[in-house]
Amino acid sequence: MNFRPLGQSSLQVSPLCFGGNVFGWTADEKTSFSLLDAWVDAGFNFVDTADVYSRWVPGHAGGESETVIGKWLKQSGKRGRVVIATKVGKDMGNGRIGLKPAYIREAVEASLKRLQTDVIDLYQSHDDDAATPLEETLDAFAKLVKEGKVRAIGASNYTAPRFAQALETSRKQGLPRYESLQPLYNLYDRAVFEDALAPLCRRENVGVINFYSLAAGFLTGKYRRPADADKSPRGASAVKKYLNERGTGILDALDDVARQAGRTPGQVAIAWVMAQPGITSPIASASSLDQLKELVEAASLKLDAAAIRKLNEASAEG
């Protein structure tokens, strides 16, 4: 496996990251354990989750994904073989939200307990918190790094101006900087990342671990009509925005490239993201071993220039 440095940190991660939002949700505990075992056994080491996963499910309170991962880490003894990334900042209820130092301290202890580990490899701000000064948030993270509870920090869902401001604050204050950015990015959702965030991350040598690499499954070709959106819990809420003329054109291009390469549309969609400048490790999820096999095989697919050009043209925005 060709591991890659994550930004300027000491972390070395596989070229594809397993999205842990499914653990304890669309993948029960037993299935989640088998997925994690298969992921590591295939040579991958990167797993991303968040404290809020999966609070959106009726009856869930958040922390379900971290809890499953923690049980697996304890049972499998594979802690030394994985890079665990989690996040803080989304609404956990009862006023538990944001990036104030006191809450970060509370949240990291809860995540460490659920994950059954002494250290989080990558601790990420899940959302920007404009009400909290950046230096206060970064100083709180600095303390966690100094205490050995966190190895590196990252950010998710930041605009380019705010992310640049955060990096500059770290420079000026001598604080740990965000070594990674987790933006929305895939063949359909391109403009926001490519226009401003991508150049910034390349210039600052920040690792990019984009989420929704398969656009909630839309880019697998599973959802082609409005009625298809009800095929899964994720589809019902997430893919309807992709079911339009541009989305159909992207699926047609994926079908053509996949046919020529002898692969699936989903594998081609992931390979396209992996081929983009500055991308370190795209995040994709699987809730079955068959889906996981698709991800593993996608990591070895290299698209030629003609295929990338066809996909670029079909997915161009505007």
UniProtKB/TrEMBL annotation:
Q: What is this protein called?
A: Aldo/keto reductase
GO MF terms, alphabetically ordered: oxidoreductase activity
Q: Which InterPro entries match?
A: AKR_Detox_Biosynth, NAD(P)_OxRdtase_dom_sf, NADP_OxRdtase_dom
Residue span(s) of domain NADP-dependent oxidoreductase: 15-314
Q: Does the keyword Cell membrane apply?
A: no
One GO cellular component term: cytosol
What keyword terms does UniProt attach to this protein?
Oxidoreductase
Q: Which organism is it from?
A: Ramlibacter humi
Domain of life per record? Bacteria
